[in-house]
Design goal:
Layout lengths: L1 E6 L15 H12 L3 E6 H4 L3 H11 L3 E5 L5 H11 L5 E5 L1 H6 L2 H5 L5 E3 L4 H12 L10 E2 L39 E4 L2 E2 L18 E2 L2 H15 L3 E4 L8 H14 L4 E3 L9 H9 L4
Helix pairs in contact: 1-7, 8-9, 9-10
């Protein structure tokens, strides 16, 4: 099946600024491609594509399935994109924090939607495409909301079992990040989920169960980013990178052991770091 994943254009010409890679779309693309589907990513925001140019591109492609992701602050932009693309796509699906947060209300907000993915999309995209290929018999697969159909939750995958994000489908030279200390920017996820309940944080997609990749696997990907894409700075998008002190130390030790010259940023709770750990992180390139 032909799957096009898209990040819509900017709200208007004045809405310029820094842009980071749509890592979630790249993970979904990698999973769908590994299952034999034809996949393309259009990052209209990063490339400065106009709304008319975006519509023309979708019209040219006539995708069997068109996928978007949305956080609530940009839900209006995605809704506009769905209205624009509705005549040119067979099916339209939305994932990300917004549909996970609002549930069935998303179909009222965005009546052009055929389905919404709740929670993490990697274990869901294959069964969803298979369901549509079969003519949508019965209720949708776990993790998928469809109008007037029953919903069941999907079980998340271990991040260690995910394919590498399909970064080759992204306009990597277009991305910039305010806090990057070196040229060549990429994002990564080394773990998902967090058991804490901070009032300011949304973890509706990753959930409360912490699931982590091994230190070696994490540093392997960092080295690949440097060698294949010329990446000098990585932003880790983990819900809580520092939850396991031992794992952070192991990641840092592995970076230092390999002599991997790369700089990076992460986020974590202040009560899970200490001077020794921060010193090791600094020595391993954390800025």
């Amino acid at each position: 099946m032909q799957l096009v994943l898209a990040r819509p254009p900017r709200r208007n010409s004045a809405d310029a600024g820094l842009s980071v890679p749509p890592l979630g779309l790249a993970y979904i693309a990698a999973m769908a491609r590994s299952l034999g589907h034809s996949v393309e990513i259009i990052d209209a925001y990063a490339t400065g594509m106009s709304w008319s140019g975006f519509e023309q591109r979708i019209q040219e492609l006539q995708p069997e399935v068109l996928g978007f992701s949305a956080m609530t602050p940009v839900a209006d932009v995605v809704a506009r994109a769905i209205r624009l693309c509705r005549p040119h796509a067979g099916k339209i699906v939305l994932g990300g924090p917004h549909p996970t947060a609002v549930g069935d209300a998303v179909f009222t907000e965005m009546p052009g939607l055929d389905a919404a993915v709740i929670g993490e999309g990697e274990p869901v995209i294959g069964p969803l495409l298979d369901w549509w290929t079969a003519g949508s018999p019965g209720d949708p697969p776990p993790g998928v909301r469809a109008p007037n159909r029953a919903f069941t939750a999907a079980s998340p995958m271990s991040p260690s079992d995910l394919p590498r994000p399909a970064r080759d489908l992204l306009p990597n030279d277009a991305y910039r990040y305010l806090f990057a200390t070196r040229r060549g920017f990429a994002t990564m996820i080394s773990s998902r989920g967090c058991p804490f309940r901070c009032s300011f944080c949304d973890k509706s997609v990753g959930g409360s169960k912490w699931r982590a990749r091994s230190a070696r696997d994490v540093v392997d990907e960092m080295a690949e980013l440097k060698a294949e894409f010329g990446v000098g700075f990585i932003n880790f998008y983990d819900d809580n990178f520092t939850i396991s002190r031992r794992r952070v130390m192991d990641i840092c030790d592995e970076i230092i052991r390999r002599g991997l010259d790369i700089e990076w940023k992460c986020e974590g709770r202040v009560d899970s770091v200490d001077p020794e750990l921060l010193g090791r992180m600094r020595a391993a390139g954390c800025r």
